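Q: Hi! First time asking for a complex rather than a single chain. Here are the components, and I think there are two in total. Is that enough to go on?
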Amino acid sequence: MADSTATLSVGLELRNATNPDAVGSPATQHGYSYALLNLLQDDVQATLLHPDSTLQDAFQPADLQMTENTWAGFIVGGITAGGELDSEDDVTRQKCEALVRQQIQWAAHLGLTSVVFTAPEKELGLNFPRVVNRSLSLLAYSHAWLRVVVKKDDNEAWKRWNTIRTLGGHNPKLSVALELGPDLPDELFLRQWTAEPVRTVILPTTSFIANTKGFPVLKKSHQVFLQKLMELNVQFLISAASLDESLHKGGLGAYQQYIRHLHRMRPELDIVDQFATGYHDYLQSPLQPLMDNLESATYEVFEKDPIKYQEYERAVYRALMDRPDTAVETVLMVVGAGRGPLVQRALQAAENAKRRVKLYAVEKNPNAIVTLRARKQSEWGESVKVVHCDMRFWTAPEKCDILISELLGSFGDNELSPECLDGAQRFLKDDGISIPESYTAFIAPMSSTKLHGEVTSYKDLEHVETPYVVKFRAVHELADPQPVWTFTHPDRRVGGVVGIDLGSPNFNIHNTRYAARTFVTATDSLMHGVAGYFEATLYKDVMISIHPKTHSPGMFSWFPIFFPLKTPLHLPANSSVTIHFWRLCDARKVWYEWTAIPGSAKGAEGSQQPPIMGTASALHNIDGRSSWIGL
Amino acid sequence: MADSTATLSVGLELRNATNPDAVGSPATQHGYSYALLNLLQDDVQATLLHPDSTLQDAFQPADLQMTENTWAGFIVGGITAGGELDSEDDVTRQKCEALVRQQIQWAAHLGLTSVVFTAPEKELGLNFPRVVNRSLSLLAYSHAWLRVVVKKDDNEAWKRWNTIRTLGGHNPKLSVALELGPDLPDELFLRQWTAEPVRTVILPTTSFIANTKGFPVLKKSHQVFLQKLMELNVQFLISAASLDESLHKGGLGAYQQYIRHLHRMRPELDIVDQFATGYHDYLQSPLQPLMDNLESATYEVFEKDPIKYQEYERAVYRALMDRPDTAVETVLMVVGAGRGPLVQRALQAAENAKRRVKLYAVEKNPNAIVTLRARKQSEWGESVKVVHCDMRFWTAPEKCDILISELLGSFGDNELSPECLDGAQRFLKDDGISIPESYTAFIAPMSSTKLHGEVTSYKDLEHVETPYVVKFRAVHELADPQPVWTFTHPDRRVGGVVGIDLGSPNFNIHNTRYAARTFVTATDSLMHGVAGYFEATLYKDVMISIHPKTHSPGMFSWFPIFFPLKTPLHLPANSSVTIHFWRLCDARKVWYEWTAIPGSAKGAEGSQQPPIMGTASALHNIDGRSSWIGL
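A: Yes, that's all I need. Here is the structure of the assembled complex.
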């Protein structure tokens, strides 16, 4: 059971209420934390549209005088946008627009925290989106919700939302109030919403069913979707026709009690999510362990991973068992030893395997060396040699049997494991073993309004061309990940010290990569970037992975990596998108470049059209201008 | 004949030359002003791609030692990008890329002003575009040209260029070197280039034909296209196989002489273009005549228009002749009289029509009033009354028969003629005449890399949401203009002083407009914005127009107006784009909002698909946030 102290906001709408008291009092009384009230009554619009009337005649919100100041913070204002905003007649249209404007100004005057527009369920004209987006610029402190109804046999709801927010240039003041009908559409059309800024979930009382005792409960399909949405920290709103409505037992309070019950009963967070608390959808710059020295706290966090070191120990054990059991000791080298967790595990593996070993712990960080030397003295003894040196430039006194490293980033090679191991493999015996022996990067197109908003909020080029490490939450993967490239160690193509031959224009060419992968999306969607993962083979079948389909259970050392797109790409249902990805190098740095090119929608015969080159997003991070990893 | 003192730069390429002297000396000798030389010879690439070779082996540009310093400013460097940039093999691809990088660095070292990439004629991979765009970031002071061959039966050349510059994010360092084959494609595919940054036109000697005496000349089709390109200030390059080549009489010098001849013989500029010298593709903010007082020099320029005032005089004459010839004098009012050109013309029309008139000259600009009073005293006498007042707030002593104004902007209503005349029509007799009696705004989708570059160079929102007055040159209209809306005067819907009733939320609602217009484009294109024009009916069939198809010959008072798009829209051949346009008002200002939504390509049966809403460009200038005209 999840933390029951988490607060959950559940509001009430009484659709026949005409003043704050009429909804505010019963809401409070039945345990609701806020209320929704339309700022105008429906008949006002009829008055307004009479040819002789002016706005002054129509807009007389006398019922909305707030009888207590407290209502201002309690009431969310419903905006009547009317069906005539897209009238052919200029004056009718403009009267409706002026009426919206007056409601917005009225809401600002009252100090309401939020206003709610209701998206038309039929086809959109362009004036409704324009008026909604214009209203956002009039709202200084308030937010706007767009109420969108999700129901069976309507797969267009997301498209209407997408049009409105695209026309508004992705204004962060606009969020979604998702109203769930009694029957939900296919799960494909629900998943789209997990990448959107869903602020509120609206549940009409008619979307509840009665349990055996007559009290309101939700169908299983609704419960599953709500639990997913609860992870996004949504609030709720119960919408009833009137105070006297009695569809279910238990009165108006029973609905909020049931929602709070569902909230309490949601599944426990798994260990990775517990570890990630506070990091969901938070952008972190990837580590630069080669250029910077990691801090003690960073080591401390990663050393606690319950899975990673267990798998390394298994891999070392298996590798040792595969080496001939000779009289001479087996030479192990841990390169990038940090504060010693791999040294500890390697020694344990040797003990389990009953092998005599000599172990070199090579580390360039002078601060970590202090810890290593202390542990050698207190724990490890003479079989461990602590070497303070950058592995790329070390002259080893002998060659080793097993070269152990943990230099992987979220994208596998993005913390320069390939370059480091090119240097380190100089002191690996010809028949020696590298742990890890290979790693593969994976990509998938993804949607996330939240992450797009974060990277564009800086209004510069740099932030939209930088990969970030992110624990995904309000993210929707648009297709399954595909592998882009693999690095294998030792790389016997690398002779001598090529990895260090900085003067050569051939330098590091063998560690460049390029791949293009085509993905097909099932529903209409807006692609905001590329999700990146890795799988690594430590030794034979000992693997670690952060690929969603093969993720090592409970391993928390790596979150996925997010490569943004500057401009979101609209992908129609059943269309393709080709992602091009490069890993590039010069003498001082390694960087990624990427772009995405949409293809046409699938033809009737299922044949895929070629990508439409003119609609390519620009190349990101040309020449590493915005982001790179220093050698 | 055009100004023969204009300088024209014509260069020479000798395709078999291997060092600067070999091309530089003959180029100078035969009257060329620069030369193109490949920085590497073809066989270098073969050396490089041998598995055992390194870049050092391959890149030995000994032949490129500049024998004289002067060659650095004379030589343009050809870059060998090779056909292997899109090889499947990582190392081959990277060797080719490193070779390009060395050439670019070499060109920078030599201080060459430009380098030339040659676009592949077959389908593009993504590495060629990436390497070209990466090179731009390595070129500190030099520019790059992309050599694109235009020839019969290849309609894809523009699409290849568009892909390359789109992937590069529209980098202004990259321009086009357009090579014309012996036969040109359909004019549709030539016109595309007029909106592009064509810096150089390359003419292989094989694209020339021999005249009756055996000297090189160009076909008529080439001449027509070149004359269009010459307006864009291009330079030329003659490409010959070798020094000894003798396809035509007259030697190598004959080609540049012929080009210079064509340049001298190009048609005289018409009066509008002469007037516009220095203003082509230059962004001007539209006037704000209501908020600002025009300067004397501004009046001076516009008073010189040879056509506008002639048409106004015709209109006033016709209107006077249509009024009953009674004993009492006809009352004319010129509102916004400026320094008096319309007063003068109206008096002339009255004289021609032999009508006695009393004329009120109403002007709000206190500086212009000085001139009006002086002219009344020295030229016009007692029949003219000079009134210093804003026409919207004037209390006229009597009503007039004919209300004359020249308040039109490039988009018709964009200098607030509707609002001004709403105020002024209070003192027009019920059967009185307004000159102009109506005006209509027109829009067309357009492409212009130059103008897009200008508005985005500021890297802010304001400049991409502001309309500009521009004399178009490097602009390609993607479809014929269509009317969006019309204003007619007097507007009898406007009762009393509604136009001035600033307190009313209904204020000025009747002057708001909305229209959506769909255009079909013939070729693939990149839409950068919307071109705006107007047609005005002064009186009955007396018209003035800046619509390209109906432009009043010789009238120079108005250039077109350009509404930018933030992000260029790619439009496939035979597809549609729907432009939505609004004219909106509040109590203090009037502004435009606009957006464009591409549709699908035409189906086989010619049926047009609906617009793809998710690909809409964002609404521009929401709530007038970036640009507006003050009331």
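A: The domain at 296-406 of chain A is CATH 3.40.50.150 (Rossmann fold). Let me know if you'd like any chain examined more closely.
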